[in-house]
Amino acid sequence: MGLTHLSTDLLLCIADHISSTKDLDSLIRTSRQFYHSLQPFLLIHNVKYNDSSALLWAAYRGRVRLIHAILRIPGSDLNVFHEESYETPLFLAAEQGHTEIVRLLLAEQPRGGIPLDVDFEDSQGDTPLIVAAKAGHLEVMRLLLSDGRVDVNKTNDDGRTALAQAAISGFPEVVRLLLETENIEPDCSDVDLWTPLTFAATGGHLDVVKVLLEGEKRVDVTCGDWKNLTPLMWAARGGVGHVVEYLLDRNDVDVVLRDEDGRTARMWAEEYGYQHIVELFDSRGIE
């Protein structure tokens, strides 16, 4: 008697003992009968023998129905990760902006397994919150920040928080959302002692600079890096005129502060040949 004459229950029993996905796929492709009988079993097989790796594929591509189907299988691993990048389903969904999948994963209750690690780090130390901030996915950010398990001040391998990454990318609404979060540390600096304000000022993101300095949780406008260069100095050194002008017009900025080598913001502008920046200082009588 050939395989095609076996009952569906017996076929499922055979399939359950095939550990290789490739071998199971070959069996499924043998006949139309096998395809219809065993194709749904592929997900169960993936959970049992491949640690729920299909979750990674579905999360990256935004396949909500597939995520639903996998999560219904006992033993599905919410924390499965790519063996090289260490990216988890939650990480991939957050990075790609798949709001509904992020919602599903955060709400999922493990069935006797390990609970979801909301701050699982990839190979660069980034968390789902950090990559969502990098990409400016505001709705994903709201979901993550509403989950009490997420650490808003967690840093990556460069010492940068989600707030720093949002400032680097120039997303004022993401920055505003983060500043409204309880326990946020707005002046948290990276390995080079750069703060979110330093990144925003240097990058020319004036709208982000304003959010940082004009909100309830205002940051330290004179906070310097490891050589005591302030955001104003970095903006002047980089020729970022609109940011320099804004900072000069504030009454809480020490415009003549000197760095470790004794240079002021004006001196940096002169050294790099930014005459339009020098003129901003001249017009305000700042030597």
UniProtKB/TrEMBL annotation:
Keywords: ANK repeat, Repeat. SMART domains: ANK. SUPFAM superfamilies: Ankyrin repeat. ANK repeats lie at residues 85-106, 124-148. It comes from the Eukaryota. PROSITE patterns: ANK_REP_REGION, ANK_REPEAT. Coiled coil: none annotated. InterPro entries: Ankyrin_rpt, Ankyrin_rpt-contain_sf, Multifunctional_ANK_Repeat. PANTHER family: ANKYRIN REPEAT-CONTAINING (PTHR24123), PROTEIN HOS4 (PTHR24123:SF33). This is F-box domain-containing protein. It comes from Aspergillus brasiliensis. The lineage of its organism: Eukaryota, Fungi, Dikarya, Ascomycota, Pezizomycotina.
